[in-house]
Amino acid sequence: YYDAGDNIKFHFPLAFSMSLLSWSVVEYSSKYKALGEYDHIRDIIKWGTDYLLLTFNSSATKIDKIYAQVGVAKNGSTTPDDHFCWQRPEDMSYPRPIISVTSAPDLAGEISAALASASIVFRDNPSYSSRLLRAAATAYNFARSNSRRIPYSRSNPDIANFYNSTGYWDEYMWSAAWMYYATGNSSFANFATDPRLPKNANAFASVADLGVLSWDNKLPAAMLLWTRLRVFLNPGYPYEESLRGYFNATGLTMCANLRRFNVFNWTKGGMSELNHGRPQPLQYIVNAAFLANLYADYMEATKVPGWYCGPFYFSMDVLRSFATSQINYVLGDNPRKMSYMVG
What we know:
This protein is mainly alpha-helical and 343 residues long. The chain has 12 helices and 5 strands. The chain has a domain at 1-167: Glycosyltransferase (Alpha/alpha barrel), CATH 1.50.10.10. It is 52% helix and 6% strand. It has a 3-stranded antiparallel β-sheet with strand order 1-2-3. The chain has a two-stranded antiparallel ribbon with strand order 4-5. Strand 4 and strand 5 (312-315) form a beta hairpin. Helix 3 (105-121) packs parallel to helix 6 (169-183), helix 4 packs antiparallel against helix 6 and helix 11 (282-301) packs antiparallel against helix 12 (316-331). The longest helix has 24 residues, at 11-34. The radius of gyration is 20 Å and the shape is globular. The protein starts with 8 loop residues before the first strand and ends in a 12-residue tail after the last helix.
């Protein structure tokens, strides 16, 4: 998949997109089927995961590099590159460098999450599902290697100018969650609930921006996935302390979505400015809407009709209204009365 309007292949956000799409199928496959889109969404995911399997030696159990990006673009370039030339992929004739990295805890963690989550989606195809899961384990082990814990974009401006990674502990928590759900192996739950992980990830720092899901910050999604484990299976000791922390932090993230608390500014048209008025805001609000609706579904499935924000109690309907309002904003309920959906 290409990114935006240029012809660069950015593997970090690509893998994140596949993870979220797979999560949506894991949770809402019946709805995709009811809409006649189940085969379509699986084709979309497989196109992405087939590509991700080619970004490293996915048949090996141990690797020493991952390909992070195809193509480059420099601001003000006077020589052909992906921003100097705006053209169809079929017409590209200029060099398109391939960037590989030997340290990528963030990128490898995200690729692991994408492949592991997709392995659940494709369990009806045992051969492909197993291939995805084996590759996910290889990427996960590469990500966790003690000698490779430098963000993939560090000292590489061709990457950092576009998708600079600010850390990798969130990807550790995120990929461990998907590896746990895909395998049932308790070692992943042990790692994710070791108190050192949420500490390093600032999971309980009560910083509003850390509750905003994006390609660079998987923390709120990871904590919701671990909350899922707690509310449905309640594994208890030795996981409970960290799982309770994730559960409480997730509740605070949901509180931050509510306009009455003024955690984030809102536009006059009704969009929450989760990225503080900077460009490209819609990705953040649709991510927030997805998490809010999932949280509400999880709680209501366990007969929990609401949650507390300090002394205030809110029904899940309030959270669903937030999610619906943000999606409707994207689809046309905005001052311009136009849909921002493309493709």
